[in-house]
Each structure stands twice: as C-alpha cells, then as structure tokens.
Amino acid sequence: MPTDVDRQIQRSSEFLNRTSERRGSLNARRRMRHGVEIRKRLARIAWADAAILLSAVMLGWFLPLGIGGFLVVSALLIAATLAFAIFPLVPEVKPEQLQETPLKQLPLRTEQWLETQRAALPAPASRILDDIGIRLETLSPQLATLSEQEPAAAEIRKLIAEQLPELIKGYARVPQPLRAVERNGRTPDAQLADGLKLIADEIGEMSAKLAQGDLDSLATRGRFLEIKYRDESEFG
After folding, report:
1. pLDDT tens by residue, 83-113
2. What is d(CA 82, CA 41) in angstroms, rounded to the nearest whole number?
3. CA triplet 47, 48, 51: central angle to 5 degrees?
4. HEC readout, 81-118
5. Fewer CB within 10 Å, N side or C side of the chain?
6. What is the pTM for the complete model shown?
7. Where are the alpha helices (DSSP H) in the chain?
8. What pLDDT does residue 218 have?
9. What are the pLDDT digits (tens) for 133-164?
10. Are the C-beta atoms of 132 and 196 separated by less than 8 Å?
11. CB 135 within 8 A of CB 202
12. Which of 11-15, 24-28, 199-203 has the lowest mean pLDDT?
C-alpha cells in the first residue's frame, strides 16, 4: 500500500514531468519561430536580389552598364543581403511601448521583449523567463476576449507591462560587479530571481482567475501584489 512518502514522490515526479513537457513545448515553439524567421529572411533576400538583377537587366537593354555598372549592382546585392540578414524583421519592442500595446497583443509583445533581455540576466533568472513565457502563452487567448475597460484588464496590464519591465530595468541599473554581492542578506541576482518567480506565479494565478470567470477577485489583487512585489524585488 502506498505510503505518504510514496504519494509525495509520485506527485513530485508528475510535477517535474509536466514542467519538463512545458519547457520542451516552449523550446520547440521558440525553435519554430526561429525557423520561420530564417525562412522569411531568406525569402526577402531572394526577392530583393531578384529585383535588383531584373532592374539591372532591363537597364542594360538601353544603357551599357560596363564595369562601373557591374560594381554598382554588386554593391546593391551585398547591401540588400546584409540588410535583410542583420536587421530585425519587426521593430524592436521597447518596454515603454508595452503599456500602449493592445491587451490581446500584450503577451506576445512581452515575450518578444523578454527574449531580448535574456542574455543579460543570470542563469536562474533566465530559466524563470521560460516559466513566464509558458504562462504568457496560456494567458494570451484569454486576453483576446477580455475588454480593456474591465478593472481586471488594468491589473493584468500593470503586472505585465509595468512591474515586470521595471523589475528587469532595476536589475540592469546595478553595476555588474555588485550583482553577486550580498546586501541586507540577499544579492541583486537573488532579488531578481525572487521577483520574477513572484510575477510568474501571479500571471498563473491571473490566468486561473480568468478561466474561472472570477474577474472581481482578479481586480482586487493589485494592492496585495504591489506591496509584496515591492518587498521582494527592490534593489538597493
């Protein structure tokens, strides 16, 4: 007969399996988006180069291009290839823009911004970004049907578009040599991880409330979160 320890081990194992599956799904979607982006870049390079070559051929029917024209066409081909290979396909997301982003687009735009911040964060915080990404993807279809006028929408926007970026920007202001130095018993690295974990948990809670249709409860969570968030994540 299974003991309490056996049941606890089984629950822990199931939790780890679900977490692993969610991370695998997130990584798969990230690889898929990366593959789509590469294909789009290659397609745009091909179209641009084809347009340049076609224009050169048509111009060559009327005017001899010569060596100078060949060099100009070559320079245009190189410039077009580099431009579409290097520059982003979509404008870079600024954290200030998140507050003006339509609610239904907010999770995706937030994910895009978080990906640009990942390299500057310590490894534990980077792993928590995966959890936030999973929760944002779950939240996204729920926000598609939530009115901007709902008090719950304001609380969600405050958490995702204001408190999350401020936490990461606050960490970025800490000089690199001081991020692993303890102050008042905790390091900025640990404060960042704690703050991100709190936000990840809160996004999950908000998603659960939306699934239950409990908008009133969701709209009253702001004051509690603001106090707890400030205690957990202030850098200094």
Report:
1. 777 776 556 778 888 888 999 999 989 998 9
2. 10
3. 85
4. HHHHHHCCCCCCCCHHHHCCCCHHHHHHHHHHHHHHHH
5. N
6. 0.63
7. 4-60, 66-86, 95-98, 106-117, 123-143, 151-157, 164-172, 188-212, 215-219, 221-233
8. 63
9. 989 988 898 888 888 888 888 889 999 999 99
10. yes
11. no
12. 11-15
**Rounded to an integer, what distance in angstroms lies between the CA atom of residue 177 and that of residue 195?**
20
Task: Name the token pair of 57.
Answer: 């051929």
In the block, tokens 């304001």 appear at 154
Per DSSP, 146 falls in state S
Q: Is the pLDDT of residue 58 over 70?
A: yes
Q: What is the rounded distance in angstroms from the CA atom of residue 118 to the CA atom of residue 122? A: 8
Diameter of the chain by CA atoms?
Answer: 91
Structure-token pair, residue 186? 């905790």
3-state secondary structure of 68: helix
User: Token digits for 76?
Assistant: 């245009």
**Rounded Cα distance, 199 and 75, in Å:** 49
* Mean pLDDT, the chain, integer: 78
Retrieve residue 123's tokens.
């490894």
The Cα 196–Cα 204 span in angstroms is: 12
